Amino acid sequence: MPRLFFILTIFLSVNLNAKDVYRNGQTSFNFPQSIAGIKVSGTKRFPDPRMGYALRYQFQNKLLITIVVYNGGVGKIKNGLNDPKLLQQMRNSTNAIHYAAKARKYRSVKATNEPSKWGPLFLSSSFSIIGANGATQKDYVLMRAQNNQFIKIRISNALKAPVDAKIKGFISELIKIIGAT
Length: 181
Description:
Layout: H1 2-17, E1 20-24, E2 29-32, E3 34-35, E4 38-45, E5 53-59, E6 63-70, H2 84-102, E7 106-111, E8 123-131, E9 136-146, E10 149-157, H3 164-178
Antiparallel strand pairs: 1-2, 3-4, 4-5, 5-6, 6-10, 7-8, 8-9, 9-10
């Protein structure tokens, strides 16, 4: 009987923890298998710990949301949107999209500079992109600092149907996960 209880306890603990795809004790962020109905499709821990880790969430193969959590070796970062280190990271992230067009990964990239639809807790930039295959997509880069980490979110939407409500639900849940207020 004790052996059966032990096996059952292990089985339940594995299943209870299976809902979290990625747990980070240093930042206390626990990312689940699904956020607002958008399921994780991959995770990556970068070899250099300063570069952190990434999670990719996907909906209908046309909406991709990639979250990258990293410190970059910059030391302390003030929570929120005003740390100069965060502002530099945001510039680097948006410039990387333009460089990808120059490297012919995209046919065209146009910054749309639309006001943020995703709330006041993230810096944001928006782009209209024509991919190398000719497909059009709407991309957004969102960033904030939290728990001495940069949180970068790249949203790539190639769906024809509007999914703003789905993305807003995702961002709303993500805010709870990272403890941003």
